[in-house]
Structures are given as structure tokens and as C-alpha cells.
Design brief:
five-stranded antiparallel sheet, binds the ligand Nc1nc2c(c(=O)[nH]1)N[C@H]1C(S)=C(S)[C@@H](COP(=O)(O)O)O[C@H]1N2, binds molybdenum atom
Length: 441
């Protein structure tokens, strides 16, 4: 139970009329003239479009990890049938993951003000008593509860992940993936149940007209079957146009202060809401770093002159020094690293040995799989598994140089993986071993 003083505080904040109409359980308490089926329906449509983008790009991001390849890529091993749609993630176009994940993170962020506005628009329903008058209504309200709950859960876990706060005792990937399926299921149910009323709501008014109506001329919508419209509306203090402008300006501000992180270069400096962009290299290596070599305790093994690249899976393991690798045919590719967290290095010019060439040197020319392993001594994400299309893509490299200079330690010296369209987490830095295998699935 909430302490009475706290309840009184909430009630006074929510008392929109300022007249002290008693208690939010009474409909008369809710007096904003903006609330009504049209206003809610417009927000619903924006959220529906945003949700479709988020679900599609989210499920694509999950697919981009190629979790079907096994342990290092599969961060949700108990997913069961939820992986039914997985497919070998393509390597073309090379900016594919950049696009899907930029959309995912940016659309997720700009939906926050819209979600808050939508919740405000239906807030009186939260206080309706009894909560359900019929079993059908009980099911409907349960679906709303799941939808609101999973929406908040997905937004909060997503934002916390972007912001580097891993404060929970469960894995982000698992939580965000399962939450997404609860969200999708309740969204489908909610959309099916509410579609007719929403369409009717949209027909109730014309957007054109509303965008021309001032606060002084703003009147409540006619009474509606869902009883969203206040029975005793107060005079408007803001027009619907003003409310949309407020929501749009909030989303626009969030976008403006975040969008820079998906571009390299000076873009990061403008991404005030993004935590990245603070750790960078210098000269040709001056672009966003995720975690440094020092953090991963990779400095010592990576600078050890006895470092060798070890290729396994062939008739016998073979090793190459960095000089050996530099003497092999070098390929240059313009590729972007896109992190699942929504920041990017921007396109950089990577030079190194094709993975396809290394497969041949390993003695597994038709390799189906490749496991890359880092020599880092601390932290996660030190290995990744790749599928045939990734190994043999002409732009898939074991990079030795970037933008004409040797890789910096923080960017993975002496050698790192760079695979077009793969999520950044698979671009393993400080590579020690590549294990190829033929056959398999
Ligand atoms: N060995 C190793 N490689 C790694 C990581 C890591 O933690 N360890 N992080 C990955 C992640 S999550 C990203 S987004 C990219 C970032 O590359 P950068 O730091 O060169 O920009 O490196 C990847 N390579
Ligand atoms: Mo990442």
C-alpha cells in the first residue's frame, strides 16, 4: 500500500482542473479537453508505425548475430522456437546492419515521448472501477497491461544498454529478446481488439483542421463509447496542435542529440545523449573505440613480439607473424562498424588479408565455419563464429591496417576481424586464432 501522503501528492499533481474534484476514480476528476478517441488514435497510429519498425529491426538484429552458429554468437541459448526465422545474415550491402540498427535505436529513442503522451491520453482508464465489466473486457485489459508493461520494459532495458548501465542480474540480450516477443504478442492482440475503434476515432476529426485550431478554439471531442472524453472538460490551455508540437519537439530534440552517434567523425561530438564518442584514437585511428586494449588486458599479449596468428582446422595448425601476413595479398575495403548499442565508427578504410585467403592457407579452402578468438585476457566478446558467406566474401578481412596506418592497440592491433554487415561485436580485436571447419550445417 502507498502511504496516504504520497497518494495525496499524486492526486494533487494529477488534478488537472485545479478545482480539487475529489479523487481520480471519479470521471469528473479528469478534465483535459484534449483527451478523446481522435487524439488517442493519432498517437496510436504513430506508435504502431514505430512499433513495426522496432520489431522488424530488432528481430533482424537478433538474426544478424547468426545465433544458429552456436555458443559464441548465441546469447539466448534457451530461445527454443523463437529462433524459427533465423537465416544466414547477408554480407551485402555492407551497410545493412548500420541501417537496421541505427533505425532500431533511434526510432526506439524518439518513441519515448510518444509513449508517454499516449499513456497520458488514456490515463483515466487506469483508474476505472470496476477494472473489467465482462470477461471479454478482462482479456482486453490484460492485453493492455502486458503491452504497457513490455513497452516500458523494452524501452528501459534498451536505453540502459545504450547508456552502459548493466545494473540488472539478468542478461540484456535474453531480457530484451523475450520482452520483445511479449510486446509483439500483446501488440497484435491489442491492435486486433482496438482496430475498429481506432479507425472510427481517426474519422472523428480532420488533422488539417486540428493543425489550424488554436487553444482558445479547442473544444472537447463528443462523448465516446470508451469514455475517454471528459464529462466536464476544462477550457483548453493548449491546443491539440500545441500538444503534437510538444511531443514532436521532444522527439526531435532526442533525435538531434542522438543521431550523431550513427555517423563517424564529428557526428559523435553532437550526440550529447549518447555515452559514446568519448573514447577515441588519434591520427588515422581517430574514431570511436568500444573498450580499450588496457581494459581487456590485451596490451601485453598484443605487443609481444612472439605474437603469431594461428590457423587451425586444416591437416595441421599453421602460424604466421604479422610480417608474414603483411607479405600476403592485401585487400582494402571501405567498411563501417555498427555496434548493437547504436553507435558507429563511420566508414573506415581497412586493409588486410581476406579471410577466404586465410582459409586456403589453413588448408580448409571450402570452410563452412570460422571461429575467431582473441588473445584478450579479460572481459567478454573475445570470440565470434562466422558462416560460409561471411568467410568467403571478398571484403571480409583480417585487418592489419586502417586508413593507411597500422591498427592502433585499441582498434585491435596486431590484427582484427572486419566482416561487411556483421554486427560490431563480431569484429573481433586482438585476434590470436582462427579455427576453420569444413562441412557442418
Ligand atoms: N577482442 C574483442 N574484440 C571486440 C570487442 C571486445 O570486447 N573484445 N568488442 C566488439 C564490439 S562490441 C564492437 S562494437 C567493436 C568496436 O570496435 P572498435 O573498438 O575498434 O571501434 O569491436 C568488437 N571487437
Ligand atoms: Mo558492440
Amino acid at each position: 500500500m502507498l502511504p496516504p501522503a504520497f497518494v495525496r501528492l499524486i492526486v494533487s499533481v494529477m488534478d488537472e482542473s485545479g478545482t480539487g474534484a475529489k479523487g481520480p476514480l471519479r470521471r469528473e476528476f479528469w478534465r483535459s479537453p484534449l483527451r478523446g478517441p481522435w487524439f488517442t488514435a493519432v498517437l496510436s497510429m504513430v506508435l504502431l508505425v514505430g512499433s513495426v519498425v522496432l520489431v522488424v529491426t530488432g528481430l533482424l538484429s537478433y538474426a544478424a548475430y547468426n545465433p544458429w552458429l552456436g555458443a559464441p554468437n548465441d546469447l539466448t541459448p534457451n530461445k527454443g522456437f523463437l529462433g524459427f526465422y533465423l537465416f544466414p545474415w547477408p554480407t551485402e550491402p555492407s551497410w545493412l546492419y548500420w541501417l537496421t540498427q541505427s533505425l532500431h535505436v533511434l526510432v526506439g529513442l524518439i518513441m519515448v515521448p510518444v509513449v508517454l503522451a499516449k499513456l497520458w491520453s488514456v490515463l483515466p482508464k487506469l483508474f476505472e472501477w470496476p477494472p473489467a465489466a465482462s470477461p471479454a473486457q478482462a482479456v482486453e485489459r490484460l492485453s493492455v497491461f502486458l503491452l504497457v508493461g513490455s513497452t516500458i520494459f523494452e524501452l528501459v532495458t534498451g536505453v540502459m544498454n545504450i547508456q552502459y548501465y548493466y545494473l540488472w542480474g539478468f542478461g540484456f540480450y535474453t531480457a530484451h529478446l523475450y520482452g520483445a516477443w511479449v510486446f509483439l504478442a500483446s501488440l497484435v492482440l491489442h491492435t486486433a481488439v482496438r482496430a475498429r475503434r481506432t479507425v472510427a476515432g481517426l474519422r472523428g476529426r480532420r488533422l488539417r483542421t486540428e493543425l489550424r485550431t488554436s487553444a482558445a478554439a479547442t473544444r472537447a471531442e463528443p462523448p465516446d463509447p470508451d469514455r475517454l472524453v471528459s464529462p466536464n472538460p476544462a477550457p483548453a490551455t493548449i491546443s491539440r496542435r500545441g500538444a503534437f508540437a510538444l511531443i514532436g519537439a521532444s522527439s526531435g530534440t532526442i533525435l538531434l542529440l542522438s543521431v550523431g552517434q550513427v555517423f563517424g567523425g564529428t557526428g559523435h561530438a553532437l550526440a550529447w545523449l549518447a555515452p559514446r564518442g568519448r573514447s577515441r584514437g588519434s591520427g588515422p585511428n581517430d574514431f570511436q573505440i568500444n573498450k580499450t586494449a588496457e581494459y581487456h588486458q590485451a596490451v601485453e599479449p598484443a605487443t609481444d613480439p612472439s605474437w603469431r596468428l594461428r590457423l587451425e582446422g586444416g591437416p595441421r595448425p599453421v602460424t604466421f607473424s604479422r610480417a608474414d601476413l603483411l607479405a600476403m595479398p592485401q585487400t582494402t575495403a571501405e567498411l563501417v562498424i555498427m555496434c548493437v548499442e547504436g553507435w558507429s565508427t563511420g566508414v573506415q578504410t581497412w586493409t588486410g588479408v581476406r579471410l577466404d585467403h586465410l582459409a586456403r592457407r589453413a588448408g580448409v579452402p571450402r570452410a563452412h565455419r570460422m571461429l575467431a578468438q582473441s588473445i584478450q585476457r579479460f572481459g567478454g566478446f573475445g570470440s565470434a563464429e562466422f558462416a560460409a558467406n561471411q568467410i568467403h566474401d571478398p571484403q571480409s578481412l583480417l585487418a592489419l591496417r586502417v586508413n593507411g596506418a597500422d591498427l592502433s592497440l585499441d582498434h585491435g592491433y596486431p590484427a582484427r576481424i572486419i566482416v561487411p554487415a556483421a554486427p560490431g561485436v563480431h569484429d573481433t580485436k586482438w585476434v590470436g586464432t582462427l579455427r576453420f571447419s569444413a562441412g557442418g550445417r
